[in-house]
């Protein structure tokens, strides 16, 4: 049974991804940064449905802590699917953005990708099969007022993943980015009302976490073996 790690697995999109991967017969490591009880709930639900999962909690912006915990998970078998979904936002126009606001968002969303992915790559490469999937945002492609820090962090993932895809292609490992638009959930429900969404999104609705999870599950499967180095939007037709 292959292992999959989903960072930020306790959130709306992360949890949906965990459920989908478990349905594909993977052992899912459900990560949380500061809500271990939520990761525990997702894990318990997967196990109750006949799947295989475990919860894990650490701060992805802490490189040393991330490495130590992940190395302990590699003792018996490699992690062959990485879904880098952990991210935060702290929105304010750049003119009023503090040093801490800039760095904290980038530390989690971009440096966290390195801190989690890098320790897992060599063990993955030895298996000659793997999937690296980074969850980005439409903000990285179009920008968004008040989100210069968030957009910069997510856009950095695009360059990192495109480079990584070239480094790993000969080892049977793909690396891709999924860039959601407005998706129903805790991070967006208080930001956009239905009328605003209708004006912004050609599909005239917000996306569902399960729709993002379906795309991630496909990219994590054998059927996506020839898709690599791509930034794939899932946004209801926003271009």
Structural features, described:
By secondary structure, the protein is of the alpha/beta class. It has a single domain (3-234), classed as NAD(P)-binding Rossmann-like Domain (Rossmann fold, 3-Layer(aba) Sandwich), CATH 3.40.50. It is built from 8 helices and 7 strands; from the N terminus they run βαβαβαβαβααβααβ. α1 (12-23) packs across α8 (209-219), α3 (63-73) runs parallel beside α4 (99-127) and α4 (99-127) runs parallel beside α6. It is globular and about 50 Å long. The protein starts with a strand and ends in a 5-residue tail after the last strand. 45% of the residues are buried. The model has no long low-confidence stretch (mean pLDDT 95).
Helix content: 40-55%
Query: What's the arrangement of strands in the largest beta sheet?
Result: 3-2-1-4-5-6-7
Q: What is the number of helical segments per DSSP (H or I, 4+ residues)? A: 8
What's the CATH class, please?
Alpha Beta
* Average pLDDT rating: 95
Using the CA coordinates, give the radius of gyration: 17 Å
Major sheet: size, sense and barrel closure? 7 strands, parallel
The stretches of 5 or more residues where confidence is low (pLDDT under 50) are: none
Assigned CATH superfamily: NAD(P)-binding Rossmann-like Domain
Fraction of residues in β-strands: 15-25%
Number of domains: 1
């Amino acid at each position: 049974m292959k292992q999959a790690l989903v960072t930020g697995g306790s959130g709306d999109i992360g949890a949906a991804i965990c459920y989908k991967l478990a349905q594909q017969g993977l052992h899912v490591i459900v990560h949380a940064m500061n809500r271990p009880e939520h990761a525990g709930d997702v894990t318990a639900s997967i196990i109750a449905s006949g799947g295989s999962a475990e919860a894990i909690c650490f701060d992805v912006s802490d490189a040393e802590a991330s490495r130590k915990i992940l190395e302990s998970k590699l003792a018996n078998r490699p992690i062959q699917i990485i879904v880098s979904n952990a991210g935060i936002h702290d929105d304010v126009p750049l003119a009023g953005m503090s040093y801490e606001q800039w760095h904290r968002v980038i530390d989690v969303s971009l440096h966290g990708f390195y801190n989690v992915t890098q320790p897992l790559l060599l063990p993955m490469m030895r298996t000659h099969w793997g999937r690296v999937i980074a969850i980005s945002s439409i903000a990285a492609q179009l920008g968004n007022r008040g989100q210069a820090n968030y957009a910069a962090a997510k856009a950095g993932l695009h360059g990192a993943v495109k480079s990584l895809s070239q480094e790993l292609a000969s080892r049977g490992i793909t690396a891709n980015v999924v860039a959601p638009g407005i998706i129903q959930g805790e991070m967006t429900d208080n930001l956009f009302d239905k009328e605003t969404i209708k004006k912004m999104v050609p599909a005239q609705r917000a996306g569902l976490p399960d729709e993002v999870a379906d795309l991630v599950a496909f990219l994590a499967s054998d059927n996506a073996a020839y898709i690599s180095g791509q930034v794939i939007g899932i946004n209801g037709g926003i271009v």
